TrEMBL record, chains A, B, C, D, E, F:
Top-level division of the source organism's lineage: Bacteria
ATPase dynein-related AAA domain segment(s): 38-172
Signal peptide: none
InterPro entries linked: ATPase_dyneun-rel_AAA, CbbQ/NirQ/NorQ/GpvN, CbbQ_C, P-loop_NTPase
UniProt keyword list: ATP-binding, Nucleotide-binding
Keyword Lyase: no
Similarity-based family: Belongs to the CbbQ/NirQ/NorQ/GpvN family.
Organism: Ancylobacter defluvii
Molecular function per GO: ATP binding; ATP hydrolysis activity
SUPFAM superfamilies named among the record's database cross-references: P-loop containing nucleoside triphosphate hydrolases
Pfam families named in the record: AAA_5, CbbQ_C
Protein name as catalogued: Nitric oxide reductase NorQ protein
Span of domain CbbQ/NirQ/NorQ C-terminal: 185-268
Length: 270, 270, 270, 270, 270, 270
């Protein structure tokens, strides 16, 4: 294993991030990491993809560099650029280049939001070459064995306009994520919000109902994150119904009918 | 509580901003602040969201940094950028970074107007990480406990084109705002415009009627702000009808029929 | 009243700009100025809005900074920017910042032409805060009592694409402008073009007829300005019909039928 | 009359540009110049607008600065900008600012091609103020009496997308141009191409026929310029039919039918 | 043969890249290279075009510079640009210019993704001139005999919006690529993934079935690359069905029906 | 004749470029050059326009500066720009300015691809003024008599969106180009590819058939250039059918039916 450059130490996870596996995703991630097959995590908002990557980085003892992709992000934002200094122009590595040099796990969150030049930039890192060409420096950085590329992708979002190119998709092995099963989700909510198991189970029932409302009423159902936040508010003394309204119902929709349906669900479950 | 950097003192509110609560929004805000659950304030133009945030900043003794979002605002406008100086390039924190470092309340007004890179930038601040990565500086700023993020959102505006991403919405608990009840609104108008209670009540009746005209006639009804301004003009000696025309009717619409309807309302209420 | 910085002296009007009021617009402007209620002047091209603002600036003894808005104008064009100097970057106030610091009247002409970031920049100046945040300088400039914001708006132009946001409109009291009544308009034309009253009345009759042709034939009728220019050309020896053709008919339209109609009007009125 | 800055001497016309008037356009231009009424010259391609302006600049003894407008031209291209120099940033006047300072005639050719910020920049120069505000320098340049603004406009081109704003149009008096009458056009062609009168008359007949083909066949008919060029080629020994093909038929259209029609016209006229 | 500049040594392939020819593509490439006829490789994602170019670069002993094209790539990204240094601006060759100067093989991957200025930049290199004009340096670089230009093109992708201009297409001779025949593909998969021949044949049968599903179900079938990766995961201990799901089924589609069909194929073949 | 600046020597053609005239285009070019009438060469891809210009530059003993136009080319790319140097900003002439100063022939290839600011920039060079205004330098460069402007234009390409403005077209005399007659084309192919006359004739017959397939099957038929390249490959030992497939059929189309038709043509002609 390569020695990491010292300045990636701030990207190392000291404490184990809490994560209880759904299936054998830990084994799949480790096999992909060992086989150097880049990985795509597919699933809805707030179902634990980010937490899983953090857990695996801790488990594999790798620094983790996370990059939230957006449509104004350019290749230079990933790779680096020349900046003007008192001594003239100075090259500054971008976060992807840092991850490659330092043998870190690089996590590109919601990659489909990025412009094409971003996705093309990672191509040479995702085939047998495992290199990152820095055209502007005339340098080709070879990835050490510790480097690993993970991207996330929310299939519920994709439209014809914004989707990964076929030649990008086929460069990744994929693991499907979804919300945890009810018992495990209640566990997570109780632990993270600091509430008792009974209340957590009720919140999970609310979320399950919201996820069954269907695409026409809600773009997505309530995520585990919203349950945790409702729990935290209840733990601070807010009434359960009011906390659910504030953390679950109101953020999800402004449509009066859908709000009514959600509030009936909340009333029935609490 | 963290010590604030001295240069945020200019963002502290010295005098209590006048605010009379509608419901238990003060308790909800405080619970969210203590639980570190970011907050979204939903409601129409000029119904008091900004004033409420100012009041809470004063009550919680936090500096308040307000940022009016617009479609040309970039992530760098929030986070900071390198500027060229006599000594070469120098980093300058943007207002969001200042708020994070200084443990301030950061209020992003009308966030939906901003481009996606802005909304994505706040993601790591709104989940359990509570950090702001400054990619261009290779720095990750951890938010002190005093930092709190509040955004506003006007549901009446949103179109399919401009809306928050689902993964952004679910990162916030939400409080609904609407115009104050008639008596409280009259109170506010009388106090802020310096007019007597009777006149204020008449103005509030005009506003209520305008809000009932429906979306087809007016995009939004008269806000509390327009009532205060009509009152101020009357207090400066302008006739009541003329002041209402100038501060309420003329700004709201150029359509002759709707103006006629509004003027009948004004005549009937005064 | 605050002392003005000396460098706004070049924006003070020394001679009284000629203006004869239509109604009580002078009183309305003064009341709005004293009550610190920002003002929107609504009306067609060339009906005297700019001249009215100049007159009021002279009457209120305030410097006047006029900014013609256009779709390429950015917030930085209003607020200011850093420029590179021999000593590194230097901040340079934009015209809006100058107006705020110096307590001037700032007139944003045809504000609807500007991009959204411009209109959002003025929001904190138009509510109770009356401040201009200079994000890039981490400075908040408080407006002295002499500062006053006036914008103009041509309702005939507005389309769905380009209109002010509701939250901007409701920040202004509005005064409607239209062409002056015939007698007063003839007065203005005679005085500004240096022609006798009889000829000025004829020109005004031509304009009135052009304004009645309706939107299908002409986007707008002949403005007072075109009458003054026709008068000036006549005063320089050009024949009346030819001067009207040059200053009124030819600029308004290239459509042969509409030109024919306008020329009949000219022939009938002269 | 103001003294011109020496560096506009290169914009003075030493020799009289050949121009034979069609009507009283010379008197109209002079009256507009003396009355300081900005001028718009309307007419098709190559009918002599540019030559007329050159002639008038020579006649009025004014330097002439010509600017060909295009859709990528910015306000800064007209007004000036800061450039980085060894001593830091230095302001450099644009051609419009030079023209204003130097009291020149400024000719904006095909202004409708420019972006809106260009057209708005000239507004304060075209009303009673006659000033050019240099916002970036905090300077307002007053135009000396010798400054005069002329724009050209081709009505055949205009579409709904690209047209002058009403508030711009009404700032100019307009003179219509069209192709010269046959005898005068033949005169011009003979003189400029160096061919005899008989041949020039034949070329003019060809052009007249092309101009009658109608918009469906040709966007515009053959301009005087194409006739002069056909004449020049004939004077260099090219056969008359071949020269007409090369200078008139081939440039105008690639449509086989229209070419056939034009060639019949050429054959019939020669 | 020209001497290569030393700094292209890092672009030389030391070990023979594994490649088993399908037909006589090696002879065709060599003939085109000797005849200096630029080459276009046509074919679907992951069928071995990049590997073939690497093999030929090794075989012909030429450095290989690969450039992944994307829609934000500018001509300057290929050709070079001036950078600001302590000594002022310094020119830096782009990768295409380096390839020309050094007599390398330059491989423009997915050229159709690039903007038109990129494709136009290569025109003078692809006709008899074989030069690269560096307009900004006023330099014309003549390509040495060792320089060779290869582009790739995926016909399955092209739409009316994004296609090569006719005048670009005709500058290249083309070789069609498709997936290798079953036996050869199994050979490649076994070798690269480190699995036995029987398993490799099964994986190839899965891919063949996926390629027959048709465009409506899948934009493209499983590439050889996905088979290799499934093999690698199996070699790391992941179950065969699970590895196929992760490396083949999940990356290709999110559609439940198509996934079902693919999984039946996987079950039938294993 | 003006003395050329020494640094255009690299743009002089030392050896006569091979060119056999179709008609009297050499005389027409010379007459236009002597009469200073700018020239437009019209015709399809690869029919010899560029070679003709090279031949004429050699014949007229003028340096030749060729510029391939594209939609990202700006006026500054043609005219020049200020660059930052150790001594501050330095002006650098663009290729068009160099051509004007040096009295070169300037060839703008496929001008219709360029943006409007490019085409407008050449206007003052193409009428009687023959000057190039460098607005940013406040300099007007007069073209010496040796300067000549030639543009190319492919009528097959033009759409309503991308076409020259009428006021640009009429500034040029035009010469139509098309593929050479069969005998002459065979001559060219034999000479340039180094093959015997019989084979060249066969290739020409293939091209002729492809040009008759019509627009629906092929956007353009096979150019002379593709024939030469097929010939070169045959001369390097590739079989004739395979060489035609590689140099003619495969580059032209991916449509299976059209490929079939073309291959039948190839089989029939060889």
């Amino acid at each position: 294993m390569d020695a990491d450059p010292p300045d990636l130490d701030c990207f190392r996870l000291v404490d184990e991030p809490y994560y209880t596996p759904v299936g054998n995703e830990i084994a799949l991630f480790e096999a992909a990491y060992r086989a150097q097959v880049p990985l795509m995590l597919k699933g809805p908002t707030g179902c634990g993809k980010t937490r899983f990557v953090e857990h695996m980085a801790w488990r594999l003892q790798r620094p983790l560099i996370t990059i939230a992709c957006h449509e104004d992000m350019t290749a230079a934002d990933l790779v680096g650029r020349y900046l003007l200094d008192a001594q003239g122009t100075v090259w500054r590595d971008g976060p992807l280049t840092q991850a490659v040099r330092g043998g870190a796990i690089c996590y590109l969150d919601e990659i489909v939001e990025a412009r094409q030049d971003t996705t093309v930039v990672i191509h040479p890192l995702t085939d047998e070459r495992r290199v990152l060409p820095l055209d502007k420096r005339n340098e080709v950085v070879a990835a050490p064995s510790g480097f690993f590329l993970v991207i996330s992708y929310n299939p519920g979002y994709q439209s014809a306009v914004k989707d990964l190119k076929e030649s990008t998709k086929q460069r990744f092995a994929a693991i499907d994520f979804t919300y945890a099963a009810a018992a495990r989700e209640a566990d997570i909510v109780a632990r993270e919000a600091g509430i008792d198991a009974g209340l957590a189970e009720k919140l999970v029932r609310i979320a399950a109902a919201s996820r069954n409302l269907g695409h026409r009423a809600l773009e997505e159902g309530a995520s585990t994150r919203t349950l945790i936040r409702a729990g935290k508010l209840i733990a601070r003394g807010i009434g359960a119904a009011e906390a659910c309204d504030m953390a679950i119902v109101a953020p999800l929709t402004d449509d009066a009918d859908t709000r009514g349906a959600l509030r009936s669900v909340v009333a029935a479950c609490l």
